Amino acid sequence: MKKCMLSFLVIFMFSCTEQKISIPFTNVPHTQYLKLRGTVSEIQIKAYNCNITDSGYGKPRTTDLKSCLYPQCNPCFDFMFQDLVFSYKDDIDIYYQPIESIKNMFGSIFDITDLSYTFNKNGFITNISSYYMDNKIGNMQIKYNEDNMVNNINYNLPSINFSKKGVQYNKGTIVNNDYIYNSDSIRKIQQNISPDKDTSIFVDTYKYINKDDFIKGLFISELKTDSFHIFINNNKVNKVICYIDSFSYKRGDNLSHIDRSEQTVFIANDKVYSIFQKNDNLLDNLHRIENSQSNIIKYNDFIFYYNKTDDRITNITNSHTSIQYTISYINDKRGNWIKMTITPSRETYERILYLKKELINIKQEYQSWSSADGEFKLYKILDRFIEVKKELDNNYKSDVIENIEKISNKIIIERNIFYYD
After folding, report:
1. What does the pLDDT average to over 210-221?
2. E strand or H helix at 207, and its extent?
3. Bridge-partner residues for 248, per DSSP?
4. Does 128 have pLDDT greater than 50?
5. Which of 200, 297, 300, 398 could form a disulfide with 304 if both were Cys (CB 3.0 to 4.6 A apart)?
């Protein structure tokens, strides 16, 4: 009788004990995402622009990090978390919150000339400071619990004023988010915004259910319920099929509607590298192609070439501008790069400048022509004008011709890296 009672008590206690849900995603340290080696404590980032000249490039001058090289989500800028392609996969990854907040902060700031990150010894970002010409314009502080789950994010959203003097940043609003977890599946966010003193509470529920050959994931919020099929290979998520419910929401006086969609997201090293829309045979976004020499990512008009040894970009081609970029690095003793130089090819710049000068010369020759020179010379001038104009219009886009000096500048990005040891 005592044995039966003991067995019943054990079963009862086990059934009443709250079981932690196994999370299929990995809580990747941010230093690992940024490909930093060693125990990094802080990293400071600054960008420079070198104007192209007839004989080379001008002296480096401080420039905006966000506009160094379009598109901003190109993998050169992984230190700004901009190469993470937007996908609904982010909703089901409970560890994604710090990165989402970081990306949102960068999106709210117009110009950034300097960045500073600090990390804890576990490799997670604890503070981000952004500057414009030595003026601090943005700051974010992130705190974690003992499981390295974010439990507080505090950041300011500066207000922006445009004037004849340029962009001016004011203090704006301060947002404080507290994150409370229940069995790793329910996350409550208490948000306080000052100086408005608004307080809101959001509840997100994450559920992971084991199926035969995949894990079913559910993300439930006040606005929507999304479902996911999560596939594992070698103990890591390598594919997520997202089934997004349609829903409507009101922002101010505007009612927005998002239709149900389906997305297949491919993942490697905890990063999204490819997205298929439903029934699409072509890639909608990034596409990484592996070959024996390099990894290749395609994004719109861009192709990014990676060195497979250290997974760094070595070259970029842009079919829209017909410009190729070569990427070179200087490393510190730990093997982390402290200087990245992005050098564009000069062929497009030199050819466009030559053709533009030719048009000026032809125009001057036409203006100096007189009837005494004869019609033959006039026809020759006009034929030459048509030939040069045709080459310019057929081979180069109008925006490329207009901005050829700007897009041909050399970019230098420098990083000061500090270590715990």
Report:
1. 86
2. strand 198-210
3. 257
4. yes
5. 297
Q: Are 191 and 176 in contact (CB under 8 A)?
A: yes
Q: How far apart are CA 57 and CA 344, in angstroms?
A: 11
CA angle, 383 then 385 then 386, to 5°:
65
130's tokens: 């952004």
| Dihedral angle sign, alpha carbons of residues 27, 30, 33, 39 | negative
Cα separation values, 16 from 19, 143, 378, Å? 9, 31, 96
Q: Say if residues 87 and 242 touch (Cβ distance below 8 Å).
A: yes
- Whole-angstrom distance, CA of residue 106 vs CA of residue 92: 22
User: Helix, strand, coil: what percent of the chain each, to 5?
Assistant: 25, 45, 30
Q: The pTM is what?
A: 0.79
Place of tokens 């402290």: 338
CA-closest candidate to residue 151, choices 178, 127, 119, 187: 178
Q: How many residues does the chain have?
A: 421
- In degrees, rounded to 5, the angle at the alpha carbon of residue 296 between the alpha carbons of residues 266 and 320 is 110
> For residues 270 and 278, is the Cβ–Cβ distance under 8 A?
no
Assigned token pair, 196: 């408005």
pLDDT exceeds cutoff 90 at 306: no
Long-range contacts of 47-51 (CB under 8 A, 24+ apart): 47/113, 47/411, 47/412, 47/413, 47/414, 48/411, 48/412, 48/413, 48/414, 49/409, 49/410, 49/411, 49/412, 50/409, 50/410, 50/411, 50/412, 51/405, 51/409
What's the rounded Cα separation, in Å, for the pair 402 and 408?
A: 12
Instruction: List the end-to-end C-alpha distance of the chain, in Å, as a whole number.
Output: 61
- Two tokens at 83? 């190469």
Handedness of CA 392, 395, 399, 405 (dihedral sign): negative
Residues 70, 74, 78, 81, CA torsion sign: positive
Residue 294 binned pLDDT confidence (cut-offs 50, 70, 90): low
Is the link from the previous residue into 344 a cis peptide, with omega within 30 of 0?
no
Residue 154 has pLDDT above 60, yes or no: yes
In percent, the amount of the chain with pLDDT more than 90 equals: 25
Write down the residue that tokens 């719109």 correspond to.
300
